[in-house]
Amino acid sequence: MAGMDDILEALPIDDIAAQLGVDPSEARRAIEEGGATILSGLQRNAQTPEGASALEKALGKHGSEVSGGTVDLNALDTADGQKILGHIFGGQEQAVAQKLTDEPKTAGIDFGKLLPILAPIILGLIANRQKGAAPDSSAPADGGGGLGDLIGGLLGGGATGSGGAAPGGIDIGGLLGGLLGGQK
User: Fold this and answer.
1) CA torsion, points 119, 121, 122, 126, in degrees to nearest 10?
2) Buried b (16+ CB within 10 A) or exposed e, 157-170
3) Domain containing 9: what range?
4) How many domains does the chain contain in total?
5) How far is Cα 35 from Cα 114, in angstroms, rounded to an integer?
6) Per residue in 93-107, pLDDT tens?
7) 83 burial type by CB count under 10 A (0-12 exposed, 13-18 middle, 19+ buried)
8) Please, which pLDDT band fits residue 68 given cuts at 50, 70 and 90?
9) pTM reported for the whole predicted model
């Protein structure tokens, strides 16, 4: 999954593990699950003209989070990450974090701490990819192509707007569909 690998390569996993109080392998698994959940939520939002437009606007404000291919956790704005999650999950970000925290495969991980770290990083990666993409790739998504394809590429093509399983096996589509009540 090239996109998730990009996210993992940009992150100081040992530092995140220390912040979460877990070992690096657990942090890596949690980052994969949390990252896939955020990307699935973004992809879901990008399927509507309003969601794609809002995402385009948000991407214009991001990109510096991943400077030189790495992330400085001390410079990361987790308050902004919390706002991003609110937009992605329609105010259900705490329920999403709790659902991930309750999953057996990621038990013991505080996704309430992790997701606000991941959200601006993922937007930064998408913004940087979009800037480097072909000119027609930056056109607003209208249910397919463009931004939706870019996000799908980060998901590794394994998940669609209706969901899919994250690398560790959590059904992201079921999680988001159940919490958010179908398409926005």
Assistant:
1) 140
2) eebebbbbebbeeb
3) 2-180
4) 1
5) 10
6) 999 999 998 888 877
7) middle
8) low
9) 0.75
